[in-house]
Amino acid sequence: MVFKAHDQKIPKSICVIAIICSSLVLSYISFVKLPKSFAETTSSAQKSTSTDMTCALASTSIRLKGTPQQTEGPYFVDGMPDRSDIRSDPSDATMQQGIPLHLIIHVFDVDNGSCIPLKGARVDIWHANSQGIYSAVNDLGTTGKKFLRGYQITDNNGTVRFTTIYPGWYQGRTIHIHDKVRTFNGLEKTMEWTSQIYFDNSINQQVHTELPYSNHGPPQTSNEEDGIYTGPSTDGLMQRNSGEELMVHLIKEGHSFIGTFNILLHSVQPKQ
Predict the structure, then answer these.
(1) Residues 129, 133, 139, CA angle at the centre, nearest 5°?
(2) Tens of pLDDT, residues 74-110
(3) Same domain, residue pair 42 and 75
(4) Beta carbons of 129 and 147 less than 8 angstroms apart
(5) Domain span at residue 120?
(6) φ, ψ for residue 175, nearest 5 deg
(7) For residue 115, what pLDDT is reported?
């Protein structure tokens, strides 16, 4: 009887142990298989959320219509260097002096208000130096120079980054940076968008109290006095004050500025 009683207890213990082991095995399998997939999903979701949040900073009008375009101006020169730091001149390695500006531009393709990062687009920027002088302009005596000009190709997040200096002013214009976005299929241009970026008036004034900007004097034209800033966009999206939608977001970091700007394009852009 003792044997039978003992014999009856053994199967119960084995069952309990078997159940516990099965649970541990299943938990281990779940632990091994799920984290990688979960991490990938989380990373993807976080990336998407980050991208959407960046785009969401734009006004409803811009998300629906796109960022307004403005005139190219007389000083665009194609074929400039592929580079992130545009402060130097390739001909003699001289550096333009001024307050460093780290400019981050995000380019999105917008479809019914939804933003998709535009990968592989060419983004050119060009602007005046601290004394209001552009490179590569015969009338300004800078023929053959390429300072403060260059382009970058947008990454998977639709982003390009430039290191430059805070722009100076020249007669009749408020302080600005020109920008152009193009896409290509081989050598064929499939899309072109052109506009300008503007800065807060008070920051413009503050910058020009410091060298080398102070050598040129304070800005003579504010945003509100600039005919291109206050005028219509060249694409018909805005009838006036198109510059209000083209303001760079600036953060002061030490003696430098970090500027961010979003460009939202229609999903279908006519080739210009």
Answers:
(1) 160
(2) 999 999 999 999 999 999 999 999 999 999 999 999 8
(3) no
(4) yes
(5) 59-266
(6) -70, 135
(7) 87
> pTM to 2 decimals?
0.79
Q: Check whether residue 215 and residue 256 sit in a common domain.
A: yes
Q: How far, in Å, CA of 143 to CA of 134, rounded?
A: 10
Nearest one of 44, 151, 119, 107 to 260, comparing CA atoms: 107
The predicted-structure confidence for 107-143, as pLDDT tens digits, reads as follows 999 887 788 999 999 999 999 999 999 999 999 999 9
Per-residue confidence at 26, pLDDT binned at 50, 70, 90? very low
Same domain for 183 and 150, yes or no, is yes
Do 19 and 67 share a domain, yes or no? no
Q: Are residues 65 and 52 in the same domain?
A: no
Residues 86, 162: one domain? Answer: yes
Backbone φ and ψ for 99, nearest 5 degrees, come out as: -70, 125
Is the domain of 29 the same as that of 133? no
* Alpha helical stretches, state H, 57-114: 60-65
Please check whether residue 272 lies inside any domain of the structure: no
Omega before residue 117 within 30° of 0, cis:
no
**Distance (Å, whole) CA 67 – CA 61:** 9
Number of H helices, E strands in the chain: 4, 9
Give the pLDDT mean for 211-239: 97
Cβ proximity of 67 and 264 under 8 Å? yes
For residues 119 and 157, give the distance between their C-alpha atoms in angstroms, rounded to a whole number.
7
Euclidean distance between CA atoms 191 and 106, whole angstroms: 17
The number of distinct structural domains making up the chain is 2
Mark which of 56, 72, 89 sits at the end of a domain.
Answer: 56
Question: Are both 112 and 36 inside the same structural domain?
Answer: no
Q: Give me the count of residues in the chain.
A: 272
CA distances from 185 to 188, 202, 268 (A): 5, 42, 15
Cβ atoms of 98 and 213 closer than 8 Å: yes
